[in-house]
Amino acid sequence: MNITIVGTGYVGLVTGTTLAELGNSVYCVDIDEKKVEGMKNGIVPIYEPNLEEMFLRNIQSERLFFTTDLKEALDKSEVIYLALPTPPGEDGSADLSYVLKVAHDIGEMMTEYKVIVNKSTVPVGTADKVRKVIASKTKIPFDVVSNPEFLREGFAVEDSMNPARVVVGSSSETAKDIMAKIYQPFTNTGVPIIFMDEKSSELTKYASNSFLAVKITFMNEIANYCEKVGADVDKVRLGMGSDDRIGHRFLFPGIGYGGSCFPKDVKALIKSGKDDDFDFQILQATEKVNIAQKVILVSEIEKYFKGDLEGKKIAVWGLAFKANTDDIREASSLDNIALLTAKGAKITAYDLIAEENVKKLLGDKIKYANTMYDALEGADALFIATEWPEFKNPNFDLMAKKMKNKVIFDGRNMFPLEVADQNGFYYKSIGRKTILN
Ligand code: UDX
């Protein structure tokens, strides 16, 4: 099949590459000329494990093309995926202007039947809006389908090649048949394709992300309570997760959830609810708890230094919002750095992958180290903000040598308590007892 993808951001690029890998001819359209030129020359504009290999393979096999010309791509394709940004507005609602602008252009340019697929995370009712905009520009038949994306950053290729499910919202039998054909390589291997109406499909995406945000936040509250009563959240987590109605995943407590999806989607669902006179009480509580959780260790750091952080040298390990990505959107590291700096602390950060993005944002307001150990030179304390695998088994002797004080505040529970204890560190993590060395 010939497919156009409009928007080569995270979702668009991964979806396009995946659909090419499944044997389709895919035309990726973007308004950014420099980016398109780069992609034509084999430059992948984002960091994502295993993407480059698949991207280059499909360019070479002449199944993956890039252009700034929407009309050219449109004329070649029966199916058009919209993978455009839907940034949150001031009030948290998703801004649909990019999606509706392209819908308008498609309406003006199309000369035969098309299926328009909404891949972006869009509020309930967006398929109807897109339909209306296109219908106002053309009499040619078309269908609008909702097909939300569930991939995780850092696992985008793995997730998009092995989806847990494919959700398709469509009220047209023709469009359903076309979507079933596109995803046949998946359904053939047992991946369920779940058909529903457009609105239910749109809500499925928000409900899934919000539920996971609630799950994490619930565990963060349990962790905070563990500290109050002297329980160990790692034990509670294992005990709870063994019930397969609960499951082990997304029960890891820490310094809150971040990234481009959870915070935005929770906010947007609360706002959509408000617009429909509906009060999402659980989500409002989740948002509030998460904001506080992100900086929960700062008061502990202050307590340790008896309220005086002026001139204290704090090393920060990890800047990305989670491991395996260079994405720093809504990263807890940034909230902590802002707060610690405001209280007079001096930050030296280390993150091999995300450093460049933080530099663009913070410049020389903080220092950057080339290795995780260099960051510790003369440090009064270490703060761990991201669960990069390289932090899991550090050389504690070398750490002790470099640091002024053997003190760790760990927002991601990287070490077993006994390991920190045996190595003689003061160790404060989340939902577990503090090791008072
Ligand atoms: C998420 C969804 O998982 C994905 O299905 C959707 O399409 C987009 O949003 P992503 O934002 O890439 O993906 O990251 P994810 O791995 O889900 O983590 C989100 C946040 O939750 C991170 O800040 C992570 O550190 C935090 N998290 C995750 C926890 O604090 N504890 C956990 O147990 C799991």
Automatic annotation (TrEMBL):
Keywords: NAD, Oxidoreductase
Keyword Methyltransferase part of the UniProt annotation: no
PANTHER family: UDP-GLUCOSE 6-DEHYDROGENASE TUAD (PTHR43750)
Organism of provenance: Chryseobacterium taihuense
Name of the protein in its database record: UDP-glucose 6-dehydrogenase
EC number annotated for this UniProt entry: 1.1.1.22
Database matches in Gene3D superfamilies: Cytochrome c1, transmembrane anchor, C-terminal (1.20.5.100), NAD(P)-binding Rossmann-like Domain (3.40.50.720)
Domain of life of the native organism: Bacteria
Pfam families linked: UDPG_MGDP_dh, UDPG_MGDP_dh_C, UDPG_MGDP_dh_N
Protein family membership: Belongs to the UDP-glucose/GDP-mannose dehydrogenase family.
Record SUPFAM superfamilies: 6-phosphogluconate dehydrogenase C-terminal domain-like, NAD(P)-binding Rossmann-fold domains, UDP-glucose/GDP-mannose dehydrogenase C-terminal domain
Chemical reaction(s) catalysed: UDP-alpha-D-glucose + 2 NAD(+) + H2O = UDP-alpha-D-glucuronate + 2 NADH + 3 H(+)
